[in-house]
Design a protein that fits this description.
245 residues, alpha/beta, Rossmann fold, 7 strands, 40% helix, 12% strand, globular, binds adenosine-5'-triphosphate, binds magnesium ion, binds zinc ion
């Protein structure tokens, strides 16, 4: 599996295996009826302006390879459960919320969920908070005919999964709070899934992004899945195990 960006749109394979990839099933007398995958095709086309790319560092992420096999088992098993019933999880708007200190695997696990979502033919938008905010700002300078704020907002609210990485790391301004609230509330009302990672506790998050947003997060994502420990980025090789005697 080499190359880049292959995940985002694997085009003409029917995820349900019932049509030829066109989104239509040809019946008797050449009457075509829509395949179950058609709605997803349309959703995918509509999500065109958002980032659905897994960054290179996380592209090979998988349940059966390190680092995932080295991350806290209890948390990984909850992620596995979510992914085992991914379609159902997405359809019901359930999400996940990873919390903990730096370098403990939060983004890794969130990327795994996003990757499986894309591989299942569902739509995902993947952003760190600073990236998302600059993406929104870009649309303010858009010329007529270019993608507008409303287009982007529509895409961000309608993808099956919104992955917000490093929530709370952004500068806190009225504008940022407004954007975040509008986005989260819209997805909350539409029952669309959200995966977030953050270094902040729920209390700190409330301080940073407001109670109203956090309260919706709790309802959408359940309790935060805690990942603690040392920063694994600092550990290139495992330390020698025997230092006693
Ligand atoms: N439990 C772990 N065991 C081994 N390596 C790990 C573990 N967790 C993370 N890593 C590695 O550490 C690096 C950072 O992981 P990741 O980006 O998931 O951290 P994070 O929790 O999102 O950190 P931050 O809060 O700084 O964003 C990656 O290279 C990942 O492969
Ligand atoms: Mg991270
Ligand atoms: Zn089909």
């Amino acid at each position: 599996m080499a190359g880049s960006g292959a995940l985002a749109d694997e085009p003409s394979i029917c995820p349900k295996g019932t049509c030829d990839g066109s989104g239509w099933i040809l019946g008797p007398e050449d009457i075509a009826r829509p395949c179950g995958c058609r709605e997803r095709k349309i959703a995918r086309a509509k999500s065109h302006g958002v980032s659905s790319v897994i960054p290179a560092r996380y592209r090979g992420v998988s349940f059966d390879r390190p680092p995932v096999t080295q991350i806290n088992e209890a948390v990984v098993s909850q992620v596995r459960e979510y992914c085992d019933r991914l379609e159902e999880s997405l359809d019901s708007g359930r999400g996940l919320w990873f919390f903990g200190n730096s370098g403990t695997g939060k983004t890794t696990l969130a990327m795994l969920v996003s990757k499986l979502t894309l591989e299942a033919g569902r739509t995902a938008a993947i952003y760190s908070m600073p990236q998302l905010l600059s993406r929104i700002r870009q649309t303010f300078d858009s010329l007529p005919g270019e993608e507008s704020y409303l287009d982007l907002f529509g895409q961000l609210t309608s993808v099956d999964l919104l992955h917000l990485d490093d929530l709370g790391s952004e500068n806190r301004t009225e504008w940022v709070l407004e954007q975040l609230y509008a986005l989260i509330n819209e997805r909350y009302e539409a029952e669309r899934s959200l995966v977030v990672t953050t270094n902040l506790t729920a209390e700190q998050l409330e301080e940073q992004i407001g109670e109203r947003v956090v309260s919706r997060l709790v309802e959408m994502c359940g309790d935060p899945l805690p990942l603690y420990g040392d920063d694994r980025r600092l550990k290139v090789a495992p330390p020698p195990s025997d230092s006693s005697s």
